[in-house]
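Async update (no meeting this week)

Hi team, since we skipped the sync, here's where things stand on the single-chain job. The sequence we agreed to prioritize is pasted below, unchanged from the tracker. I ran it this morning and attached the output directly underneath so nobody has to dig for it. Comments welcome in thread, and please keep replies under the output.
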Amino acid sequence: MDKVFKALADPGRRVLLDQLHADNGQTLGQLCEHLHMSRQAVAKHLGLLEEAMLVVTIRRGREKLHYLNPMPIHEIAERWIDKYQRGRVRVLAELKKTLEGESNG
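Output:
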């Protein structure tokens, strides 16, 4: 999980993940078109994202396609967010129902 947190700490890598979320399965060249980074910098960021298992690649002929792997982020959410937020979310949902009931009554 340390590699995932390290990978997510960089804003440039988060932008790459956002791009893959919007349009999964892009080549290095396609990813570079939308960024203000050199091809070499994007490749380095992608390498770190691959190490963290946030990006997986598949070769298609000469092309190397990059795909978002959401599982590490899901695991972080389950471990570090969900268990701490469940109670709050439940209380907020109950409060919303109460307030809606009062406004309708």
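Quick observations from my side:
The chain is about 70% helix and 10% strand.
Residues 1-69 form a domain with the Arc Repressor Mutant, subunit A fold (CATH 1.10.10.10).
Reply here if anything looks off.
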